[in-house]
C-alpha cells in the first residue's frame, strides 16, 4: 500500500468515526433551520427507493451562492443539450431550498454524501453519474479519490481559491494535493485563482470568468422595486448580505452620528451629519436567514424601530428596514440608491458584488474583499464602486453619494456596463463540460434509463 493510500484510509477512518458528531451538529442546526432535519439519512448513503438512476450530470452546489451559480450553468447546459438529466446535491439547507427551484421533470435532488468511504460509495453506486461538477470550492478527498477510481470525471467549475484557503490547503497538503490532482478539469474564475489552484496540482484548463456575471436580475423584482421607489419619501442605503458583527457596526455608527437624537431645524442640513442621516432610509439585509430574528432584536436593542419585509410586505415607515426574505436581492438592490457590501467590513472576504452591478446599484465596500478580489478591483476600475477603510467612512461616503445624484447615476451606468462586459462564462463552461462528458465511459446500466442521456 502506498503512503498516499494509507493516509487516505486513515482519513476515511476519521470521517467514519466522526459521523455521530455530524448527526449532532445537524440536529442543532435544525432547531433554527428545519431544512437540516430533512432526509438526514441521505447524507450517510441511505436513499429513498425512488432516488436512483444512472448516467446523471451530477452538479454539487454546497450552499446558496453556489446553487445560484449552478442555476446559471444548468440553464446553459439545457440550452446546449436539451433534456440533460440533472442530479443536484447540496450541503446546506439554503442551498437545497434554492436548488429545488432548478429542478425539471426527470431531475433529482439529494444531500451531498458525508465524505466517509461507505457514504461516498453508496452515493456513487446508487446514481452512477456520467460526470460530476463541483461548484467553486467544494473539493473532498474521499469523493475525488472514489470518482477517480471508478473513472467518473469530476470537474471544478467557477473555481476560486483565495490566499487563506490556499494556506489552509497547504497545511493539509497530504490530503489536498491528491484531491485537487484527481480532478479531471478545473475552470477558474481569475488568473490569480488559476495560479493558486495549479500550485495544489489542479489541472486548470481555462480561466473562464465568473458564472454570476451571466445571471439576469429578475425583471419582476426590478419592476416592483421601481414602483415602490416612486412611493418612497427618502433615498435608501442598504447594508447588503451582512454578516455577524457588521449590523452592530452600522447601528453604532448611526447612533454616534445622532440618528436617534432630534435635529434642531435651524441647523444647516449640509453641516449636520445627524440631519443627513435622518434624511436616508436605512435597510439591512442579512446574508443568512437563520440570523433574521437575531438581527431584528439587535436593531431594537440599539434603540431603533424596525420594519420587516416578511410582515410589512411593502416598505413601512420605520428607522430601519430589515430585508428578511430569500430570493429577493434584485428587489432590494433595485430599491437601494447605494449598497454597503456585506462581508467586507469584517475579515470575511466580502460577499458577491456582481448582482448589485447587474442591478445598476453603486457599491461601497470595506477593506476585506479577498473572496472576489478580481471582481472588486475591476468594479473599482470601472467606476462602479468605492472602497473605504471602515463602516464610519462607508456611511459618510454613502451620504455624499445620496446628495449627488449625478455621480450616483454615473456609478449606476458604470455598474451595468461592468456587469455586461464580463459575461460569457456559462457558455464556455457548459461547452467544456459537455465535451468531457461525451468522452466519459457510459455506466453499464444507462440503456435502462428512459430519460435523455448525454449520447
TrEMBL record:
InterPro entries per the UniProt record, alphabetical: Glyco_trans_1, Glycos_transf_N, Glycos_transf_N_sf, Kdotransferase
Localization: Cell envelope; Cell membrane
Record-level Gene Ontology MF annotations: Kdo transferase activity
Pfam families found in the cross-reference section: Glycos_transf_1, Glycos_transf_N
Domain of life where this protein originates: Bacteria
Keywords from the UniProt entry: Cell inner membrane, Cell membrane, Glycosyltransferase, Lipopolysaccharide biosynthesis, Membrane, Transferase
This protein's pathway: Bacterial outer membrane biogenesis; LPS core biosynthesis
Enzyme Commission number: 2.4.99.12
Start and end residues of each 3-deoxy-D-manno-octulosonic-acid transferase N-terminal domain: 39-215
Key word Lipoprotein present: no
Keyword flag Glycosyltransferase: yes
Gene3D superfamilies reported in the protein's UniProt record: 3-Deoxy-D-manno-octulosonic-acid transferase, N-terminal domain (3.40.50.11720), Glycogen Phosphorylase B (3.40.50.2000)
UniProt catalytic activity: lipid IVA (E. coli) + CMP-3-deoxy-beta-D-manno-octulosonate = alpha-Kdo-(2->6)-lipid IVA (E. coli) + CMP + H(+)
Domain Glycosyl transferase family: 326-416
PANTHER family in UniProt: 3-DEOXY-D-MANNO-OCTULOSONIC ACID TRANSFERASE, MITOCHONDRIAL-RELATED (PTHR42755:SF1), 3-DEOXY-MANNO-OCTULOSONATE CYTIDYLYLTRANSFERASE (PTHR42755)
Family label: Belongs to the glycosyltransferase group 1 family.
Function according to Swiss-Prot or TrEMBL: Involved in lipopolysaccharide (LPS) biosynthesis. Catalyzes the transfer of 3-deoxy-D-manno-octulosonate (Kdo) residue(s) from CMP-Kdo to lipid IV(A), the tetraacyldisaccharide-1,4'-bisphosphate precursor of lipid A.
Protein name per Swiss-Prot or TrEMBL: 3-deoxy-D-manno-octulosonic acid transferase
Annotated organism of origin: Variovorax soli
Amino acid at each position: 500500500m502506498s503512503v498516499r493510500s494509507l493516509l487516505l484510509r486513515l482519513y476515511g477512518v476519521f470521517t467514519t468515526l466522526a459521523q455521530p458528531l455530524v448527526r449532532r451538529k445537524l440536529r442543532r442546526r435544525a432547531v433554527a433551520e428545519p431544512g437540516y432535519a430533512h432526509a438526514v439519512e441521505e447524507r450517510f448513503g441511505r436513499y429513498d427507493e425512488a432516488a436512483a438512476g444512472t448516467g446523471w450530470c451530477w452538479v454539487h452546489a454546497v450552499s446558496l451562492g453556489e446553487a445560484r451559480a449552478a442555476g446559471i450553468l444548468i440553464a446553459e447546459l439545457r440550452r446546449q443539450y436539451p433534456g440533460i438529466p440533472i442530479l443536484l446535491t447540496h450541503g446546506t439547507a439554503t442551498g437545497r431550498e434554492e436548488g429545488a427551484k432548478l429542478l425539471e421533470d426527470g431531475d433529482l435532488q439529494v444531500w451531498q454524501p458525508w465524505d466517509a468511504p461507505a457514504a461516498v460509495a453508496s452515493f456513487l453506486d446508487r446514481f452512477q453519474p456520467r460526470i460530476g461538477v463541483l461548484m467553486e470550492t467544494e473539493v473532498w478527498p474521499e469523493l475525488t479519490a472514489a470518482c477517480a477510481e471508478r473513472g467518473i470525471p469530476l470537474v471544478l467549475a467557477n473555481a476560486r481559491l483565495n490566499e487563506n484557503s490556499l494556506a489552509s490547503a497547504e497545511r493539509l497538503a497530504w490530503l489536498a494535493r491528491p484531491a485537487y490532482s484527481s480532478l479531471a478539469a478545473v475552470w477558474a474564475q481569475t488568473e490569480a485563482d488559476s495560479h493558486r489552484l495549479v500550485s495544489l496540482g489542479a489541472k486548470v484548463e481555462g480561466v473562464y470568468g465568473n458564472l454570476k456575471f451571466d445571471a439576469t436580475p429578475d425583471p419582476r423584482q426590478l419592476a416592483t422595486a421601481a414602483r415602490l421607489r416612486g412611493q418612497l419619501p427618502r433615498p435608501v442605503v442598504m447594508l447588503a448580505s451582512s454578516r455577524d458583527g457588521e449590523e452592530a457596526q452600522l447601528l453604532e455608527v448611526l447612533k454616534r452620528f445622532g440618528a436617534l437624537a432630534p435635529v434642531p431645524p435651524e441647523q444647516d442640513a449640509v453641516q449636520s451629519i445627524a440631519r443627513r442621516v435622518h434624511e436616508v432610509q436605512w435597510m439591512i439585509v442579512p446574508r443568512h436567514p437563520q440570523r433574521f430574528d437575531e438581527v431584528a432584536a439587535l436593531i431594537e436593542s440599539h434603540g431603533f424601530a424596525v420594519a420587516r419585509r416578511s410582515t410589512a410586505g411593502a416598505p413601512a415607515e420605520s428607522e430601519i428596514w430589515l430585508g428578511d426574505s430569500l430570493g429577493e436581492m434584485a428587489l432590494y438592490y433595485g430599491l437601494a440608491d447605494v449598497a454597503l457590501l456585506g462581508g467586507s467590513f469584517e475579515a470575511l472576504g466580502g460577499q458577491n458584488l456582481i448582482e448589485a452591478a447587474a442591478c445598476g446599484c453603486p457599491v461601497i465596500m470595506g477593506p476585506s474583499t479577498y473572496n472576489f478580489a478580481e471582481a472588486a478591483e475591476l468594479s473599482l476600475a470601472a467606476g462602479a464602486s468605492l472602497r473605504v477603510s471602515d463602516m464610519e467612512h462607508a456611511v459618510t461616503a454613502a451620504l455624499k453619494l445620496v446628495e449627488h445624484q449625478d455621480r450616483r447615476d454615473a456609478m449606476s451606468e458604470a455598474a451595468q456596463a461592468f456587469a455586461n462586459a464580463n459575461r460569457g462564462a456559462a457558455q464556455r463552461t457548459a461547452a467544456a463540460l459537455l465535451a468531457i462528458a461525451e468522452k466519459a465511459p457510459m455506466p453499464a446500466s444507462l440503456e435502462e434509463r428512459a430519460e435523455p442521456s448525454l449520447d
